Automatic annotation (TrEMBL):
Stored SUPFAM superfamilies: Sigma2 domain of RNA polymerase sigma factors (SSF88946), Sigma3 and sigma4 domains of RNA polymerase sigma factors (SSF88659), TPR-like (SSF48452)
Protein name: RNA polymerase sigma-70 factor, ECF subfamily
Domain of life according to the entry: Bacteria
Biased composition (Basic and acidic residues): 75-92
Pfam families: DUF6596 (PF20239), Sigma70_r2 (PF04542), Sigma70_r4_2 (PF08281)
Source species: Actinokineospora diospyrosa
Keywords linked to the UniProt accession: Sigma factor, Transcription, Transcription regulation
Presence of the UniProt keyword Transcription regulation in the record: yes
Domain RNA polymerase sigma-70 region: 18-78
Similarity annotation: Belongs to the sigma-70 factor family. ECF subfamily.
Domain DUF6596 as annotated: residue spans: 178-278
Domain RNA polymerase sigma factor 70 region 4 type: 109-160
């Protein structure tokens, strides 16, 4: 039973996007693809514990989902041509040629990220259909209510259907303009894998981070001169390099200042640094992802937390705020500011962000740490309590609780 459950979880991480994409290509309908895929996984939950895990879980899920889709079309068909459409679909249909990139999932991403959709809808829809995240997980990533996110995804799928948005990779001349939305999607997918937002998920979901990196590599191969594609790939690699040290043997979250840097992946760090240097050598003004990658390059260049070049990090965050004035960027800049000008100056900067980040647990965790450093124990405890109340990931909650309890 436990083996089957583990296999289903693994298959969901690895196969969800493949199955949804394959069914979208076959049937041209995102609702049918998503719902039939969900039904296939529900069938797996019923069958695999009793029948055993199939030798090829992905093929089993695709076949089962295809049959569910055909049954759905036949039940809902109102015209003969719909019956004919279902009759003509075969499990052994020859695969279509996808042109430059032979990957259905990438086609699915570009479909979900079509410019006819609002940027928020593109990201949310792709996280659901490609990343396989729940509506609740996506809502937390966007800091919005779950019902509002569900409505956003439903409207996006309806718009794709009514506007007849094609399921294909854009032409070469259209690609650069379409990449921005795709990068936003991949970054959120990566972040969800690096620290899962749900209370019932693993702390880290390597399948999601690996998928985000894989697809970003594909886009980098397609657009090697695009600075932001290179920057995002470097950012992911430098962040992923720290993953082995990010959790303890008991599954607790380990913050950057406590990590064993010897456990970081040197190959990923070397590749990430090379990409950052490659972009710097162009002399072209960096974008958001390139600046974030440069910040991570500084962090991963320090052999010890005490060797960190905080002045360079602060300068990079200051540059970043000029192109991305979000309160989250300002919060991260304040953390660097604390290392240079002290916690009192940083706390004043953080407190100004309260109207924007009142329900964002890292805001309260940052305040708690600054208050702790200032010796203000009771306000620090209250801030930790607020952060713990808002945090979803169990490992993060454990870490914050430990920090709070260390106050005495």
């Amino acid at each position: 039973m436990s083996d089957a459950r583990a296999a289903i979880t693994q298959a969901h991480h690895r196969e969800w996007a493949r199955v949804v994409a394959a069914l979208t290509r076959k049937f041209g309908d995102l609702d049918i693809a998503e719902e039939s895929t969900a039904e296939a996984f529900a069938t797996a939950v019923e069958r695999w514990p009793a029948d055993g895990v199939p030798p090829n879980p992905g093929a089993w899920l695709t076949t089962t989902a295809t049959r569910k889709a055909i049954d759905r079309i036949r039940r809902e068909a109102k015209r003969d041509d719909k019956h004919e459409e279902a009759r003509l679909v075969r499990d052994d249909d020859p695969p279509e040629s996808l042109g430059a990139i032979d990957d259905d999932r990438l086609r699915l991403i570009f479909t979900c990220c079509h410019p006819a959709l609002a940027v928020e809808a593109r990201v949310a829809l792709t996280l659901r259909l490609v990343g396989g995240l729940t509506v609740a997980e996506i809502a937390r990533a966007f800091l919005v209510q779950e019902t509002a996110m569900g409505q956003r995804i439903t409207r996006a799928k309806a718009k794709i259907k009514t506007a007849r948005i094609p399921y294909r990779v854009p032409s070469a001349e259209d690609l650069p303009a379409r990449v921005t939305g795709v990068l936003a999607v991949l970054y959120l997918v990566f972040n969800e894998g690096y620290l899962a937002s749900g209370p019932d998920t693993d702390t880290v979901r390597p399948g999601l981070t690996a998928e985000a990196i894989r697809l970003t590599r594909l886009i980098h191969t397609l657009l090697p001169e695009d600075g932001e594609v290179t920057g995002l790939l470097a950012l992911m690699l430098l962040t992923e390099a720290r993953r082995p040290a990010r959790t303890s043997t008991t599954g607790d979250l380990v913050p950057l200042d406590e990590q064993n840097r010897g456990a970081w992946d040197p190959a990923l760090i070397a590749e990430g640094h090379r990409l950052v240097r490659q972009r710097l050598a162009t002399g072209i003004a960096p974008g958001r992802y390139q600046l974030l990658a440069a910040i991570n390059a500084v962090h991963t260049s320090a052999r010890d937390i005490r060797d960190t070049d905080w002045s360079q990090i602060l300068a990079l965050y200051t540059h970043l705020t000029s192109i991305d004035a979000s309160p989250v960027v300002a919060l991260n800049r304040a953390i660097a500011l604390a290392e240079l000008d002290g916690p009192e100056v940083a706390l004043a900067a953080v407190d100004r962000l309260e109207p924007h980040l009142a329900h964002y647990h890292p805001y309260h965790a940052t305040r708690a740490d600054l208050l702790r450093r200032l010796g203000r124990t009771e306000p620090a405890r209250a801030a930790y309590d607020k952060a713990i109340d808002l945090a979803d990931n169990p490992a993060e909650t454990t870490h914050l609780t430990r920090r709070r309890d260390q106050l005495g």
